[in-house]
Amino acid sequence: MKHILVATDFSARSDRASRRAVLTARTIEAELTLVHVVDDDQPNYLMERQRSAATELLGQMTTTLAEVDKVASRMIVTTGDAFDGILRTAAEINPDLIIVGPHRRQFLDTFVGTTAERTIQRSRHPILMANAVPSGSYNRILLATDLTDASRSAVTSADRLGILTGVDIVALHLFDAPAIGMMKRAMEVPDAINHYVSVEEKRARSEFMSFLAGCGLQGARLKLSPMQGSVAAAIRACADEQEVDLIVLGTSQRTGIERFLLGSIAQAVLLDAAQDVLVVPPRQPDETSL
User: Fold this and answer.
1) Per-residue pLDDT tens over the stretch 105-147
2) Among 109, 162, 177, 219, which one has the highest count of C-beta atoms within 10 angstroms of its own C-beta?
3) Residue of 87, 66, 78 lying closest to 22 (CA atoms)
4) pTM to 2 decimal places
C-alpha cells in the first residue's frame, strides 16, 4: 500500500492539505501519516502543553478518518523547526508523497525561506502543495516538461503514484528557438521568423512525442510554444487556459547559481499558481522506488 505524509499545523491552510490527502489516499489506495511539529524554541512547559494538545487533536483526526472517510491513518508529534521536523519524519517513514498546505498569499515576497519552500527545496520525496480548495479527485493534469531526466523522473513518479490514471493529461513543452530575438532585432520579415519558428517547432514536436512515448503517455494532449519571457508565467498561463487541477514539475539536482536559477522556475510557479502543484525531486542513486 502507498503511504502519504501530510503536515498539519491545524490552520485553515493545512486543512486543505489534510482534505487533499484524504482524496488522494482514496484515489491511489494509500494510508496516511499526520505529522505536527511543535516549535522547540520555547520553554519546556509550553512545548509539553502544545505536544499534549496536538496529540489530542491528531487523535480526533485519525478517528474521523477511520470512521467517516474510511482511510487508515496514524499520527506523529515531533519537535523542532517545522520544515526540519517534516523532513526528519519523511526520512524515517519513507512516504511515497508529502502533502503540505499553501504558503501565506499575503506574504508572496517572503516565500523564500518559508516552511513550504525549505521543505520542497530539501525533500527527497515528491511534495504536493495543496493550493486549491479540494473538491474532488483530479480531472485534468498539466505536465510541464523540458525533456530532461528531471522531467522524466517527475512523469514516472506521478504515474507510479497513480494520479495520472483516468485523467485528462496536458503535456507542455516550451522549446528553444534562440534566434527569434536576433531576427527581430535584425528586422527580419515576419515570414522568415515564422518559417524559423515552424522549423524549430517541428523538431521540438518530434522530440516531444518521442519523450512522451518513452513515458507511456502517447495519449496526452500536446502544447508546444517557443520559450520567450518567463517560463513560470508560461506554465501558469497554460494551466489557467487548460483549466487543469494539478501542475506536475520536476527539479534538477544542481549546485551554485545554476541550481538557484533552475529552482526559481518551480519556486515561481509555486508562488502564484492557483492550482495544486506537485514537485518531484531527482531520483537519488540508491533509490529503487519512490
Assistant:
1) 544 444 445 666 677 777 889 999 999 999 899 999 999 998 8
2) 177
3) 66
4) 0.85
